Amino acid sequence: MSVPAPAPQGAAPPGQPKKAATAAWIGSALEYYDFFIYGSAAALIFPEVFFDESDPATATLLSLATFGVAYAARPVGAFFLGHVGDRMGRKKIMVFTLILMGVSTFLIGCLPTRDQVGTLAPVLLVLCRILQGISAAGEQASANSMTLEHAPPGKRGFFTSFTLSGTQGGQLLATLVFLPVAALPEEHLLTWGWRVPFWLSVVVAVVGYVIRRKLDETPAFAQQAATEGVAKMPLAVLARDHWADVLRVVAGALIASVSTIFTVWALAYATSDSVGMSRTAMLWVGALANVVALAAIPLWATLSDRIGRRPVYLIGAVGSAVTMFLYLWAISSGSYALTFLTGIVAFGVVYSAANGVWPAFYGEMFSTRVRLSGVAIGTQIGFAVAGFAVTFAARIAGPDGDDWFAVALFTAALCVPPVIAALSARETHRVPTEELGERGRAKAAAPETVAA
């Protein structure tokens, strides 16, 4: 199997770190634009379009469950794409995931409704959602690995944070696109209006493809392939040498439950009959919170380059557990001012501490030969739980869907494993890139590598 030619030893070529960060930002923004327009539609549109209108509560529950289906597919995609990425390189995975997400999202916009084809409609919806999940499984891990391995010394936190800034940018873009859609008259919204954001994915996918295909492979991966060779079975090496770190990443990835509860369940709760807040207002809460997050994420990441990954991550994990109570309480009060304020603080500022630092924190736990596999598998298993947190929250909220305190308590409980994972992890912000995950190298056996 051919591998990329090695780059000169030492730092990445001039301009490559910025190019890698830009490609990660734009690609992640495009990927998660696709991913989050589904979340908005699942909360606001799909219960009426794809499920039984005669039972609104059950229709909403089933619609939110389809949001979680993609998270269930993500671990499967992570095992496959992680293996390929650690054998063939980061760039190939970054291009593949972008194309797959664009195609699957466009197809959702073309699906027939329940009124047109009956139960086949939600079945096709779930199939497209599974493809979205497989794509997302490799996106962040490949982008994280690409930026981390290109980053200059002492700035890995800052450069890898562009992946998550892109995620927030994609979420912001999805929200802004849905604002005029949600304002359409009901008749237009439920017929053609909701399809437009999904069709627009073709445009963004083409832009992302052009940018990513011009990106160089990382010097760390090229040097690994040219000297020691790539791992023949990255998953076997990962299970033998890094199993504890994979478990830490799984536990840490549960912090994503804060995002799914905020963006999906809280949106559905706020616009339900029990609260009665407007769709447009709640979409603006998410939009403004993401604008703040775009600034907060690189700042938190830069701070982690100075004081370490663990303290910044812990601020985000513990703080998110507390501020979720404040946010859901504000929604229950019906106060738009309190909802905007607590939403921006909870999601835009506090959650960004953990969200901005985890790409470097998790990636630094692994060596180059298994980094993409380790981050992909660990995060996607944890994200699978986070995806279905929305469905669990809908159950926990009771028959009327208004027990916000129980949902906040549930979300806080999901923040405990990330805290434990961070406390048990090593601090790696000052470890040279080539020495990350070195403890497993001595055990590597010759049959498990493939020479360049």
From TrEMBL:
Keywords: Cell membrane, Membrane, Transmembrane, Transmembrane helix, Transport
Superkingdom of source: Bacteria
One Pfam family of this chain: Sugar_tr
Start and end residues of each Major facilitator superfamily (MFS) profile domain: 20-430
Localization terms from the record: Cell membrane
Topology with respect to the bilayer: Multi-pass membrane protein
CDD domains cross-referenced by the UniProt entry: MFS_ShiA_like
Transport in keyword set: yes
InterPro entries the UniProt entry points to: MFS_dom (IPR020846), MFS_sugar_transport-like (IPR005828), MFS_trans_sf (IPR036259)
Region (Disordered): 431-452
Alphabetical list of Gene3D superfamilies matching this protein: MFS general substrate transporter like domains
Xref: PROSITE patterns: MFS
Biased composition (Basic and acidic residues): 431-441
Transmembrane segments: 57-81, 93-114, 192-211, 246-269, 281-300, 312-330, 336-362, 374-398, 404-423
Coiled coil: none
Protein name: MFS transporter
